[in-house]
Amino acid sequence: MQANELKALVLDALDELKAHEVVVLDVAQHSGFTDYMVVATGTSNRHVKSLADNLQRRCREQAVRPLGVEGEQAAEWILVDLGDVVVHLMQPQTRAFYNLEKFWSLTEMSESAAARRQHGQ
């Protein structure tokens, strides 16, 4: 399955169970391990767990096996690694604390600054 198709499958599975604040980060230019990161919020540990379970079920239906799943016990932050798409499902307080979107935007800005310095700009 192509990365864009996998991303669409992920977004559909998350929408199906009403994930909140879904953000897709295109990190292909900044990462050697994935093309997209999807960050979404669940309202409780039960909701986060349900989002992860539904995502895994929908992937199995399309013969896609996760490379790894972490954090299912506490369900404050569950990471589902699908290779070309890495999905972070978080409770609101965990998402606010780690602020992955800001981290990846800072990575992009620092790489842009480094490129400008390298080219004498």
Structure commentary:
The chain has 121 residues and is α+β, with helices and mostly antiparallel strands. The protein has a single domain (3-116), classed as 2-Layer Sandwich (Beta Polymerase, domain 2), CATH 3.30.460. Helices cover 47% and strands 22% of the residues. It has 4 helices and 5 strands. Strands 1-2-5-4-3 form a 5-stranded mixed β-sheet, sandwiched between helices. A hairpin with a 3-residue loop joins strand 4 (77-81) and strand 5. It is globular, with a radius of gyration of 15 Å. The N and C termini lie far apart (40 Å). The relative contact order is 0.18. The model is unreliable at 106-117 (pLDDT under 50).
Features:
single chain, 121 residues, alpha+beta, Beta Polymerase, domain 2, 4 helices, 22% strand, globular
Note the topology.
Layout: H1 3-16, E1 20-26, E2 36-41, H2 45-61, E3 68-70, E4 77-81, E5 85-90, H3 92-98, H4 100-118
What is the beta-strand fraction? 15-25%
Q: What name is given to the CATH topology?
A: Beta Polymerase, domain 2
Percent of residues in helices comes to 40-55%
Task: Give helix and strand order, one letter per element, not per position.
Answer: HEEHEEEHH
Kindly summarize this structure in a few lines:
By secondary structure, this protein is α+β, with helices and mostly antiparallel strands. The chain has helices at 3-16, 45-61, 92-98, 100-118; strands spanning 20-26, 36-41, 68-70, 77-81, 85-90.
